Amino acid sequence: MIGPTRLAASRVVAALLVVAGCRAAPPPARDAVQEAFRDGALSAPEARGHRVFLQRCATCHGPQGRGDGQNAYNLQPPPPDFRESLAKVPRADRRRIIEGGTAALGRSPMCPPRGRSLDEDDVGALLAWLERAARPGAAPAEPDVPAARGARAPR
Ligand code: HEC
């Protein structure tokens, strides 16, 4: 039989192990989009849009849409820097690009269609974030973040 003192002692040991375990755990990954949202630098739709963008678009367009994604060198024409180009693309055309790719506007087929894999909320959020990314010379709304985080967009 385990006496009350030994039981208490084993509880203390267990508690210490839990504390030690917490200490040893790596700090949670910094989430720049979440921080920008908390600071008020991004609205909720913009933050969601940027998350979707980081997951689906940044591999070509770069994390801030500056045309510097890891796959950009591979594309002809390359993805443009949104700060310089996007102001010339009306919102309705941005939507058509998201849904049908640049080919939907008679441009190259390099920007793939996403119509079936994004729901309307995702598309609306992307459009909200693109609005910010389009500001010429705008200071980034948040620090650069790596493209592939695997984090899910806030729902
Ligand atoms: C496979 C690489 C790739 C992916 C992934 C991609 N794009 Fe593109 N995108 C391009 C390229 C290349 C162009 C330029 C094509 C052209 O001019 O014909 C482009 C052009 C665009 C444009 C027009 C920009 C301008 O200023 O003229 C928009 C808007 C756009 N992409 C949005 C998106 C969004 C939103 C996503 C994610 C849902 C996305 N793209 C995913 C490669 C990509």
Break the fold down into its secondary structure elements and pairings.
Elements (H helix, E strand, L loop, with lengths): L3 H21 L7 H7 L5 H13 L1 H4 L20 H4 L5 H10 L19 H14 L22
Helix pairs in contact: 2-3, 3-7
The chain binds heme C.
The site of heme C has 26 residues, from helix 4, helix 5 and helix 6.
Short description:
This protein has 155 residues and is an all-alpha fold.
- What string gives the helices and strands in order? HHHHHHH
The termini sit apart by 52 Å
Mean pLDDT: 83
Q: Portion of residues in helices?
A: 40-55%
Biggest beta sheet attributes: none
Tell me, briefly, the overall form: elongated
Total beta-strand segments: 0
User: Low-confidence parts lasting 5 or more residues at pLDDT below 50?
Assistant: 147-153
Count of helical stretches: 7
Helix and strand content put the structural class at mainly alpha
Named once each, the bound ligands are: heme C
In percent, how much strand structure appears in the residues? Answer: under 5%
* Cα-atom radius of gyration: 22 Å
